[in-house]
């Protein structure tokens, strides 16, 4: 799901819920307001525009990606946990990352990154203790802002069943209300000093690469149409990973699209890779998997995930699911279910994202 970027603040979407600070320990958020303040550190750290803005050196980017190898798997899998456990897991990962930053980023880099976090939160930055201290936001002012934020969360929840366009419209209206309230709640002196505290404006609305790096494939005994491969070996190519089960009707509906992608996009540097994870007893037979792939003319590499190890590593929950992996190994988008279900255009959406990923520079 692509991250919606609204009114200078983005919320990292895992399915239908957003990542917030939850009921976990945090040195930067007042206890009463944790549920109103999204966690933004990890999404920001994954964006190359942020790397440039905080002036990371090339070796620091390499170190950061080595750190991602430690935290991105748990971060991505956390999206399928219960809300409370999801929030606790992600808050802990963020806390660990802050400790890592202390050792590997300069003070000026950390300071600018903190400003970008504040900006990404929009008006919710006022509820963070670190920002409140810098600007002199009082507890009474925070309570006023929190009351409005809580009402807007109720609006967001009530519109959760609406169409995406209606949800975005409701969120935009709510954000504008919060923004207008700030002008009446902050003192003249606070408003004058505001820009000095948050630093020069940085547009988080345009950030695209804000998801984890893709988990490496777990080795299995059987592949079809290919020798065993790794995602690391595909660096420099865009990879379309799809989980399927050959007896799954919804998966079968996607097969013509997978075939088209394999036939038309390979010459542009796109790899289609199937992961067959069994749903029925028959699908646990590698011979049956290979026979079905031949009969349905699936000519791309297929990893036969008999023990569901890759399914678990990716935190996958649905047959079929398609993931778009960019040239550097970052997840850029995923689609659950039939790509053309009831008029959906999931295939076109993915193809547009692939086009954009192909246009990006090759990794060094």
Could you characterize the architecture of this molecule?
The chain is α+β, with helices and mostly antiparallel strands. It folds into two domains: 5-206, no CATH class; 223-358, 3-Layer(aba) Sandwich (Glutaredoxin), CATH 3.40.30.10. 47% of the residues lie in helices and 10% in strands. It has helices at residues 41-45, 48-53, 58-77, 83-104, 107-120, 129-135, 139-158, 164-185, 188-198, 249-265, 286-295, 309-313, 346-358; strands at residues 5-6, 9-10, 13-14, 17-18, 223-224, 238-244, 270-276, 302-304, 321-325, 331-336. The strands form three sheets. A six-stranded mixed beta sheet has the order 5-8-7-6-9-10, covered by helices on one side. Helix 7 (139-158) packs antiparallel against helix 8. The longest helix has 22 residues, at 83-104. The model is unreliable at 1-25 (pLDDT under 50).
Helix content: 40-55%
* Quaternary status: single chain
Number of extended strands: 10
- Helix count? 13
Number of domains: 2
Beta content: 5-15%
Global Rg? 22 Å
- What is the CA-CA span between the terminal residues? 28 Å
How does the major sheet shape up?
A: 6 strands, mixed
- Envelope shape: elongated
Q: Structural class of the secondary elements? A: alpha+beta
* Helix-strand sequence: EEEEHHHHHHHHHEEHEHEHEEH
Order of neighbouring strands in the sheet with most strands = 5-8-7-6-9-10
Low-confidence stretches: 1-25
Mean pLDDT: 89
């Amino acid at each position: 799901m692509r991250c919606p970027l609204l009114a200078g603040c983005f919320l990292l979407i895992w399915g239908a819920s957003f990542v917030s600070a939850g009921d976990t320990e945090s040195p930067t958020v007042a206890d009463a307001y944790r549920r109103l303040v999204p966690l933004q550190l990890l999404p920001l750290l994954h964006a190359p525009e942020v790397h440039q803005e905080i002036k990371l050196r090339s070796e620091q980017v390499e170190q950061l990606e080595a750190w991602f190898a430690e935290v991105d798997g748990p971060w991505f899998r956390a999206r399928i946990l219960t809300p409370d456990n999801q929030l606790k897991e992600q808050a802990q990962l963020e806390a660990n990352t802050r400790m890592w930053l202390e050792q590997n980023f300069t003070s000026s880099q950390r300071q600018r990154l903190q400003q970008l976090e504040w900006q990404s939160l929009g008006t919710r930055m006022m509820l963070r203790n670190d920002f409140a201290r810098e600007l002199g936001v009082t507890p009474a002012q925070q309570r006023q802002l929190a009351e409005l934020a809580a009402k807007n969360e109720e609006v967001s929840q009530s519109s959760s069943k609406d169409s995406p366009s209606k949800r975005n419209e409701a969120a935009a209206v709510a954000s504008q209300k919060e923004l207008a309230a700030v002008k009446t709640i902050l003192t003249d002196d606070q408003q004058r000093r505001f820009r000095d505290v948050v630093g020069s404006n940085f547009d988080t609305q345009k950030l695209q690469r804000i998801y984890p790096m893709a988990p490496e494939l777990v080795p299995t005994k059987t592949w079809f149409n290919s020798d065993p491969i790794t995602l690391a070996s595909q660096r420099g190519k865009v990879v379309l990973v799809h989980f399927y089960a050959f007896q799954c009707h919804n998966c079968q509906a996607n097969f013509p699209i997978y075939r088209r992608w394999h036939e038309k996009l390979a010459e542009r540097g796109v790899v289609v890779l199937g992961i067959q994870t069994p749903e029925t007893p028959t699908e646990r037979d590698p011979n049956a998997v290979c026979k079905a792939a031949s009969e349905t003319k699936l000519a791309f590499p297929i990893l036969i995930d008999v023990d569901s190890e890759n399914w678990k590593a990716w935190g996958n929950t649905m047959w079929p699911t398609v993931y778009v992996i960019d040239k550097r190994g970052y997840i850029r988008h995923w689609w659950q279910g039939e790509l053309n279900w009831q008029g959906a255009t999931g295939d076109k959406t993915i193809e547009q994202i692939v086009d954009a990923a192909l246009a990006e520079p090759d990794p060094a």
